[in-house]
Please model this.
Amino acid sequence: MLLDDFLPTFDFNEVHVISVRASRDRIFHSIKDLTPAEISLLRLLFAIRSLPARLAGKTRRSVEHSRPLLQQLLGNGFILLAESPNQELVFGTIGQFWKLTGNVSARIADASGFLAFGQPDYAKVAMNFSLEETPRVKRIRVRTETRIFVPDPATRKKFARYWRIIYPGSALIRRMWLRAIKQRAEQEPG
Model:
């Protein structure tokens, strides 16, 4: 997996999988073109996450309902780390996600900046979508994994507290995202 090139070791992670009856091409296009409007509760969960920042007077960009979610993420702190067409897509970010007034993101321009970044009081996050043939079945497994690496023990404790709070919502978003990819890919024409 390309994801291993960016975070081979990690402190926190989550993995979710769904089987889809569609071509690799249709699935990959669904991953890239899916909009927040197609993912139940996404806007609500994002609004809950940004509530402390809004209450502190720090505005955050809201999610645009009809623009592809991946495109919005890549325009709002995430960068594309690697892509193998119709096989795997990896994107990531670096930040201080546990801060109540909003994520303090590190400014990185590309994959080499992501790999080189070494400030201990930040967390590195890499996420992927990968496609895998299912033997003897006309389905493709779509897998998403999110990995988080936090090099400093004190910072890791801060992130662990944050992770315990947001993990259920994060997992729910990933599962809804996969279901929406499945629905879109299986309903697309020919």
About this structure: Residues 50 and 96 are 14 Å apart (CA to CA). The radius of gyration is 17 Å. The first helix runs from residue 3 to 6.
